[in-house]
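Hi C.,

You asked whether I'd gotten around to modeling the 98-residue construct. I have! Everything is below, sequence then structure, no commentary in between.
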Amino acid sequence: MSNYDFKKGNKCFYLGENEENPIAEITYKPTENGRVIIDHTYVSPQLRGKQIAKGLVDCVANYCREENLKVLPLCSYAQKLMKKNEEYTDILDIDNQR
């Protein structure tokens, strides 16, 4: 994971002073069937290209591993990253869309 101080918020992980005004964030929705849906990733323009978005995806991935959950990435960035990297195959759940 990157060297940034990511924080866990309410159904999100973020970088910044507080959850209401993050400079980078990933949001997710837990479902009743043991999955987490990643629905949005944002990194402010001045921070792009520094692997912050990947670090945020890793935060969700680690959370899901700890909680024994699967991930359905609907956010295009998270989906592309998770599909092409084997490090996420243990938690990836793309076969059961919604």
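If it helps when you're writing up: Residues 52-67 form the longest helix (16 residues).

Thanks,
B.
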